[in-house]
Amino acid sequence: MARRSTKPRELRRQPLFTWVSWCVLGVLYAPIAVLILFSFNDNRAVMSWTEFSLRWYGAALENEGIRNAAVVSFKVAAIATTAATIIATMAALATSRGPGYPGRSAAIALINQPLMIPEIVTAVATLAFFSILRQVTGWTGLGWLILAHTVFCIPFAYMPIRARLADMPDTFEIAAADLYATPWQCFRHVTLPLLMPGVLAGAMLAFVVSLDDVIITLMIAGPGETTLPIYILGQIRRGVTPEVNAVSTILIAITVLMIAAMFTLQKKRP
Amino acid sequence: MKKSLMTTALASAFALTAGLAQAEGKLNIYNWGNYTNPKMIEAFEAKYDIDVTLDGYDSNETMLAKVKEGNSGYDIVVPGDYMVAIMIEEGLLAETNPNAMENFGNVDPKWVDVYWDPGRKYSVPYQWGTTSFTVDTEVFKGDIHTLKLLFEPPAELQGRINMLNDMNDVINAGLRYLDYPRCNSDPEQLKAVMELLVNAKAHWRTMDYATIEKLTSRDVDLSQNWNGAAMRARADRPTLSYAYPKEGFTGWMDNVAVLRGAPNMENAKLFLNFMMEPENAALTSNFARYANGIKGSEEFMEPEMLSAPEIVMPADAPAPDFVPPCSQEVVDLYNKIWTRLKQ
Description:
Chain A is mainly alpha-helical. Chain A is built from 13 helices and no strands. Chain B folds into two domains: about 160 residues, Periplasmic binding protein-like II (D-Maltodextrin-Binding Protein, domain 2); about 150 residues, Periplasmic binding protein-like II (D-Maltodextrin-Binding Protein, domain 2), CATH 3.40.190. In chain B, about 40% of the residues lie in helices and about 15% in strands.
């Protein structure tokens, strides 16, 4: 224990450590900082600064295309997150509680599959698959996009939930069972409350991943199902306006808030 | 029993999300992002009582990938010239025969027998433009209408040039300068083109799509450019001038077409006819800042568009050169040149 806690300190004492860290952070975040800065610029040209203004935020909010895209984005993210988190919680329980069974590690690998396969491969495969399903069923609408998002959100929700479960000794559950709690009562009153920080963290991660997705959405989205990232992508060839900077800044703010909330929740210990 | 319940639940979930889309009279348009005038859409909706859904794409290839599998739900797409040819060949477009429609007489005759849709059986003009280059006439005071400025630049322009980061635009300019045919697979001629490009590259500062930013930030004094972008750059830097090189320059046209199996076929046909009305074509031009190929639309266009030398070609300029898609053999050769050039 003692040795582990000195390790990071030793790394920090390496020569140039601070300098290298700042360089890395700078390269990572400077472009985003510039984007945010210029979203407050009262000028049409993306490159030259005139004066501080919120006019691009106003313009973005008044733009019907952006408003519709935002509604679609949040609708899809909310439904996909809920579904993915429920499935991921069940999957985490099935893969880390109770006695082992043959094929358990295969099941874990299968659940995490969307993380391993390149997104473009999943996107192209889903496009072809959904095209056939649309033909056969005749169903159209946002359901397909939500379904696709749910699938790739599952592993993101699954990881923090499973990590939390691994950290949680099963003694409480055994005690509950000893006291004649049914499996459902045990889950409802013991496991779930203890698991909640992990579930919330997983849900937020899934929400952010759904909100930011480009490639799969680009392929699956039908008429009127443009999400915010797809809307921004569509603007690029005809010239980016500071309106796009404003929307991007709002997206970044939401993402950062969610990630921060996730870390706070994960740090909470029972 | 369980299974059918599940199916019903799923079906109703889909029906719920699709519920909003049940209104009578619909049209789903898939166009380039930021390329459709909202006022034009409103006019169409009001005239025919049709509810329009509009989505944007970033490239011909994105659009093709998405509609190729079928059942995309879209009615209208706006492919570029070569993409219309590809889509007709692959059977993706519906033969709507706009040439028999009421407003077809408004289409400028020079845009009827085009290589990508001879006689206009599938598509109607949307916007067209040219790809040439912009020069600051304060920096270079000589004759700008020659590709020499790109490939053997005078001292004042050396190191002050931006080229488009686009294989076809750069190689085609080189072929024109050497007076060789397009879609070229002649090894000797391609070798000469490669030498020309590699030598010229020493004088190029950047190869970038962001032409407006490059020019208005004064990073460069000459940039290969699209005519609409050239006009916007000139608004910020009035000494810029758009060249119509005597060796020739690229023309392009985006076209409105209907997808085969479009769910709202009749409304899509109404839209094609609507787009050939001068007033509506002018609405598009005023928004997207390119010419439209519909006779009589000038009357409704903003005056600054009509006087812009980037939009109105001078009478003595050569006709724009529309380059059809080249064979795979040629594309492979071009790729090799491009890879060498970008090293």
